[in-house]
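Thread amino acids onto this structure.
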């Protein structure tokens, strides 16, 4: 019985040691793979040439900065408009226009700002309030779309810069062929590879920024639709309150 216990303990230690060694080996292989990927990416970037690859990288960095800033702004601008409309309606019924304006002051977002402008002009008439809502809605829409045009510019420029680098690389390759007078694949393979790398990185940059751009545009459309629907609801509430 004692021998069996010793054998089981030995086997357990062997299995535990083997498992630990395997885990360490897998972790080491994963680190080597990650290192190899980043090293290859760095080498390919350097081979593409600093002139065009640097500009493409700058487009990626600036585009990501604009995209992150817009995403943060739009998320902060998103509010629960249904809850706000109910609060404004209750405030109008209980405390009048001033109470409703106070609710809008304490609420962030473009919908609350539009509500405040409409409530502030309601004393001049319902038509004046409606004009204020429409005008300030345009102002808020401009704030939502701020800097988005720069993002679309980077999306367009990045692949174009990549293509330009490719064309220049091909021109250099053909100039080398003309100078040597012999069409050899090994002679121009390196130049063509470098030329194509700029296109690859340009397309990767455009794809990444395009995903962010589509998300931002969808977010803006959702907020604008919410603003328009809420503006109509506000005018209806003001008309009912006037009666």
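Threaded sequence (243 positions):
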């Amino acid at each position: 019985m004692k021998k069996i216990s010793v054998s089981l303990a030995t086997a357990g230690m062997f299995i535990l040691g083997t498992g630990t060694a395997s885990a360490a080996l897998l972790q080491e292989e994963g680190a080597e793979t990650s290192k190899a990927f980043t090293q290859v990416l760095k080498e390919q970037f350097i081979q593409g040439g600093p002139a065009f690859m640097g500009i493409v990288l700058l487009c990626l960095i600036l585009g990501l900065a604009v995209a992150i800033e817009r995403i943060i702004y739009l998320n902060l601008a998103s509010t629960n408009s249904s809850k706000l409309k109910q609060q404004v309606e209750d405030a109008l019924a209980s405390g009048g226009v001033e109470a409703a304006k106070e609710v809008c002051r304490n609420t962030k977002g473009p919908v609350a700002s539009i509500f405040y402008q409409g409530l502030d002009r309601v004393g001049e008439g319902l038509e004046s309030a409606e004009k204020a809502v429409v005008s300030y809605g345009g102002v808020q829409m401009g704030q939502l779309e701020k800097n988005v045009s720069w993002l679309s510019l980077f999306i367009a420029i990045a692949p174009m810069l990549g293509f330009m680098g490719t064309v220049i690389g091909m021109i250099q390759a053909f100039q080398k062929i003309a100078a040597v007078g012999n069409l050899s694949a090994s002679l121009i393979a390196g130049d063509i590879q470098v030329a194509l790398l700029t296109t690859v990185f340009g397309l990767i940059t455009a794809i990444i920024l395009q995903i962010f751009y589509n998300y931002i545009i969808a977010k803006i459309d959702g907020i604008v639709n919410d603003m328009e629907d809420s503006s109509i609801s506000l005018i209806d509430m003001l008309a009912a309150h006037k009666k």
